[in-house]
Recover the amino acids of this structure.
């Protein structure tokens, strides 16, 4: 099949069934792009997530753009990005109109509370997957402790400490970590 058509269908599916945005979309992208389609390896996917996090803009759009450009060049980037956001745009417009007319209904608040809880779970699952890949090179929990990359754990721990203790800018931490990785891994 045509790669542009495939990219459109896959990212339309991802954009249509991801609730919460941001990291909540990561497990869906991984399942489709790495596990089901086999378009990227787990390491390539993790690299794309890292780059997506470092660039301005929403993670889902950045990730879909990078995957699209990798697989289909500039047309692939445009198609994947458009497909990823079109459902959300249409649903947002529809919901905005609905909420504007029904803003005092308690059931609507309760539905949104349930969706928030689900989004938190998806974000935690995505973070867990990224941590496992970074520390062990695998996305499953069945790993052997010798495969843990202690250097990656150390860089992660120092980054978390600097972020939480000194409230350093995230971009500075990313740059420092990248430089540390450059010197220690080469």
């Amino acid at each position: 099949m045509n790669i542009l058509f495939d990219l459109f269908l896959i990212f339309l599916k991802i954009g249509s069934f991801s609730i919460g945005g941001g990291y909540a979309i990561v497990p869906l992208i991984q399942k489709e792009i790495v596990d089901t389609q086999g378009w990227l390896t787990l390491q390539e996917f993790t690299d794309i997530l890292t780059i997506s996090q470092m660039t301005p803009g929403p993670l889902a759009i950045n990730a879909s753009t990078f995957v699209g450009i990798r697989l289909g060049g500039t047309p692939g980037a445009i198609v994947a990005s458009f497909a990823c956001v079109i459902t959300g745009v249409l649903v947002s417009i529809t919901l905005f109109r609905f909420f504007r007319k029904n803003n005092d209904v308690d059931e609507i608040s309760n539905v949104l509370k349930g969706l928030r809880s689900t989004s938190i779970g998806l974000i935690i699952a995505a973070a867990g997957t990224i941590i496992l890949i970074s520390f062990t090179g695998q996305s499953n929990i069945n790993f052997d402790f010798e495969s843990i990359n202690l250097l990656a754990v150390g860089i992660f721990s120092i980054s978390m400490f600097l972020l939480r203790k000194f409230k350093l800018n995230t971009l500075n931490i990313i740059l420092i970590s990248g430089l540390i990785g450059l010197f220690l891994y080469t």
Summary: The helical segments are 3-17, 26-36, 42-54, 59-101, 106-136, 150-166, 170-185.
